[in-house]
C-alpha cells in the first residue's frame, strides 16, 4: 500500500530510516487489519505555526478482508476528527496505547477505536488507529478470539518497535504471499500448533495429514509428510519452528503450499508465532504450463531460423547457377532479406522477453549487411547504438529496414575504393510520448548515382513525427526499386513512423527514421 510522504517532507523530528519504517508498517499491515477485523489509519503530526495544537494528517489507510469496513470514505490526506484528536495526541506524547475510545466518537456504539503509537528505536514516529465495526456483533467464535488476541500481540509489538521485522523477506521468490483468510496456524514458543483455522486444516489434508494438528509439532508433521528424495526449501525449518521471520514453499504429493511465519514477542522474548499458508498448487501448475509453452515457442523460433537458413542456402546455390547478372542480383537481394529475418528468429529463440536488445541484434545485422553488400570493397562501418530495449514485434520490421538501407548505402553511397557507412539511434521523450530516431548515413562516392529524395513529412518536434505520406517514395522517378518500397511500407505500416533523405555536408546522404516507441 502507498504511504503519503508529502506531509513528512524534511521534518527534523525524523531521522534516517524513520520513513522506511513507516513504509514497512504500511506494507505489511493488511495482516493487522484482517486479524483485528478493523480498519487501520496511520497518522502523523504536521506542524502549523498559526495553530497551537498539532494537526494530525492521515498518511495511509487499510480495510479488512475479514470484516466489513467502518470507514467507507478515503481519508488519506485528511485531518483527524476533533473528537479523536486528544487520543491520538496522547498516544503521540506518551508513547502508550489507548485501549478504548470515548463514546463521543461513536455515540451509537457502532464503532470501537483503539489508538497505538508506532515506535522505532524508542521514539514515536506515528500513531495507528484501529476502527472496529461493532454492528451485528455476537458471541465471538474461537477463531475470532485467536485473531483478535494475535492482533493485539502484534499491535503491542508495533508500540514497542518490535514489528514489523525489517529482515522479513517481503516478496522475494515466493509468489502468492498468503493472507489470513488463506489459512493460519498459531504456534507456541516450542513450535507446537496451538490453533489451526479450517482452511489450514484443509490444506494439510490435501498434503496427506488426516490427524488433528493442534498439540503437535509443526516441524514433525511436515517432516513425516515429506519425501526425503525431494529438495527442501532452505528457509522451511525457520518457518516450521517460528523462530524467525521467513517464507518458504512446501511441496508434498504434487500439492504446493507457500508459508510465512511471523514471530510473536513480549518483554520476555519469543512467545510463539503465526504461520500463514496458502495453497498455490494451481498457480504452480499454470507456471509449469507457461514454462512448457515458452520452451515450445523457443523451439518454433529455432526451427523457423533453421528453415530460413535452408531457404537462404538454396537461393545462394541457385544464384551461382544464374548466367544473367540481373537475375543473380535479384536472388542475392532475396537471400539477404531471408537471412535478416532468420537472424531475428535466432535472437528470439534465446529468450521470450517482450522486449529485445536491439543494440546487439542490429549491430550484428548492420555490419553483416554492409560486408555482404560491399562485395570485397573496403567499406568501414561506424555503429553508435542507442536503440535500447524495444518490443519484440518491432524487431523484424526494423531489422529489415536497416538491412535495406545499409545495402542501398553501400551500393549507391560508396565507390570502388570503398567508403564509410554509419548507423546510430537515440530515444527522446516529447508530449506525444517516447520516440526512436534512427540515423543511417554514407560518406558518398564521386559520381555515385545515390537516390535522393526531398525531406519527408516529419512533424513538428513538440507534436512528434506524423505518419509517412503514401506518396513520399524516396527516389521517385530515379530508382523506385523493391528495396525502397519495402522500406517505405515497413516504416509507415509496422513502425508507424516517418523517413527522410537529405544530403550530408561534405558529401553523402543522411537517412533519418522517426518512429514512436510503444509504452511498456
Describe it for me?
- A hairpin with a 5-residue loop joins β15 (498-503) and β16 (509-516).
- The chain is built from twelve helices and 16 strands.
- The radius of gyration is 34 Å and the shape is elongated.
- By secondary structure, it is α+β, with helices and mostly antiparallel strands.
- It has helices at residues 18-28, 30-36, 82-94, 142-159, 198-207, 218-225, 236-241, 281-321, 325-348, 358-374, 395-413, 482-492, and strands spanning 38-46, 55-62, 111-120, 123-133, 184-188, 193-196, 246-252, 255-266, 269-279, 355-357, 379-385, 389-391, 419-430, 433-442, 498-503, 509-516.
- It has four domains: 18-159, GAF domain (Beta-Lactamase), CATH 3.30.450; 180-279, PAS domain (Beta-Lactamase, 2-Layer Sandwich), CATH 3.30.450; 284-352; 357-520, Histidine kinase-like ATPase, C-terminal domain (Heat Shock Protein 90, 2-Layer Sandwich).
- α11 packs antiparallel against α12.
- Residues 102-107, 171-175 and 447-480 have low confidence and may be disordered.
- The strands form four sheets. It has a five-stranded antiparallel sheet. The protein has a five-stranded mixed sheet with strand order 11-13-14-16-15.
- The two termini are 22 Å apart.
**How is the CATH topology of the largest domain named?**
Heat Shock Protein 90
Helix content percent band: 25-40%
Contiguous helical run count: 12
What gap, in angstroms, lies between the N and C termini? 22 Å
